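Exercise 7. Given the encoded structure of a 293-residue chain, write a plausible sequence.
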C-alpha cells in the first residue's frame, strides 16, 4: 500500500457526521516540514502551539484533544515518536510529551518512499486536503503550514533550501496591518480568535522572486486579494489605491466594493511598503491606466 493510501486510511473518530481532522492536519504539517527540512525530527514542545492553532482554525467548533495525534498517529504505522533519551513515546499526555523531549517523524519506510518518489509529498497533500476539507480552505491551510503544492522535490536530510516559503509570513503581515484589510477595512474574526476572510498578499509574487517579508505584503480580504492579483487594483507610490479603468462593475455593490476604493490611502505598517515591489506590481500585474479618484 502506498503512502497516499495509508494516509487516507488513518483511523479517525467519526460519528454522526462529526469530524476530527487532527491526524490529517498533523500529516499535512509533517509533509510541509519534510519539504523544508527533510527528515529532521519535529519536537513536540516546539510545535505544540502551532498544531493546536491549526486545529482551532480549521477543525470543528470547540475542538478537544488538540494534542492527541502526536502520539496516537504512531498506531497507524506512518509516524514514530521517541523521547530525548531514545525511548518510545511516553503516551498522549501533553506534559509527558513536553518533559520527555518527545520528537516525531515519519516512519523509516515512509521516508524511503518520499525520497524515492518525491512527487508523493504533493500527491499525499492533495489527497488529505480533498478528503478532509472543502477546497475553499486548502490555500489557507497550506499558507498556515508553509506547504508548497507546486514543489515536488523535498530537501535532502540536513539541508535547508535558501528559497522556501516562510510559514510565518501570513501571521506577520496580518499582525502588521492589525488584522484588517488594507483596502476596505474588513476585519472579521471567528469567536474573537481566528481571522476569517483575510489573506497575506504578496505585492511582488513569491513565484517571481518576491520575498516573504512584511514590506512585500498586504493584508487583504479575500475579494480584494483576488482583484489585486488579477491586476484590477494596485497601489501608487504614495500608497493610494488605484483601480484599472478596464474593470466593469454595474451594480451599486460592485461600485462600492471596487470603484469607490480609487484614491483611498493605505496606511503602511511600521516596516513600510517596498517601493520596488509596488513598481513591479504596477508594471507586471496592473491592467493599464487607472480611473480618476
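Solution.
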Amino acid at each position: 500500500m502506498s503512502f497516499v493510501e495509508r494516509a487516507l486510511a488513518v483511523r479517525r473518530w467519526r460519528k454522526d457526521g462529526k469530524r476530527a481532522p487532527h491526524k490529517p492536519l498533523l500529516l499535512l504539517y509533517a509533509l510541509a516540514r519534510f519539504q523544508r527540512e527533510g527528515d529532521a525530527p519535529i519536537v513536540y514542545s516546539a510545535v505544540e502551539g502551532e498544531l493546536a492553532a491549526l486545529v482551532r482554525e480549521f477543525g470543528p467548533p470547540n475542538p478537544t484533544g488538540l494534542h492527541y495525534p502526536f502520539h496516537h498517529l504512531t498506531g497507524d504505522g506512518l509516524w514514530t515518536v521517541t523521547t530525548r533519551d531514545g525511548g518510545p513515546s511516553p503516551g498522549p499526555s501533553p506534559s509527558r510529551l513536553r518533559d520527555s523531549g518527545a520528537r516525531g517523524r515519519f516512519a523509516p519506510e515512509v521516508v524511503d518512499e518520499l525520497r524515492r518518489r518525491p512527487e508523493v509529498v504533493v500527491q499525499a497533500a492533495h489527497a488529505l486536503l480533498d478528503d478532509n476539507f472543502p477546497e475553499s480552505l486548502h490555500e489557507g491551510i497550506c499558507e498556515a503550514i508553509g506547504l508548497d503544492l507546486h514543489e515536488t522535490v523535498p530537501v535532502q536530510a540536513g539541508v535547508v533550501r535558501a528559497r522556501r516559503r516562510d510559514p510565518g509570513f501570513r501571521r506577520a503581515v496580518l499582525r502588521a496591518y492589525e488584522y484588517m484589510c488594507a483596502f476596505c477595512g474588513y476585519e472579521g474574526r471567528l469567536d474573537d480568535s481566528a481571522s476569517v476572510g483575510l489573506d497575506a498578499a504578496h505585492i511582488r509574487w513569491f513565484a517571481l522572486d518576491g520575498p516573504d517579508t512584511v514590506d512585500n505584503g498586504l493584508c487583504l480580504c479575500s475579494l480584494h486579494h483576488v482583484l489585486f492579483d488579477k491586476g484590477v487594483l494596485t497601489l501608487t507610490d504614495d500608497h493610494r489605491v488605484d483601480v484599472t479603468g478596464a474593470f466593469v462593475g454595474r451594480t451599486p455593490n460592485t461600485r462600492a466594493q471596487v470603484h469607490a476604493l480609487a484614491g483611498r490611502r493605505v496606511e503602511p505598517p511600521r516596516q513600510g511598503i517596498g517601493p520596488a515591489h509596488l513598481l513591479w506590481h504596477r508594471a507586471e500585474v496592473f491592467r493599464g491606466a487607472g480611473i480618476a479618484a
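Remark. Residues 169-284 form one domain. Students should compare their own answers with the one above.
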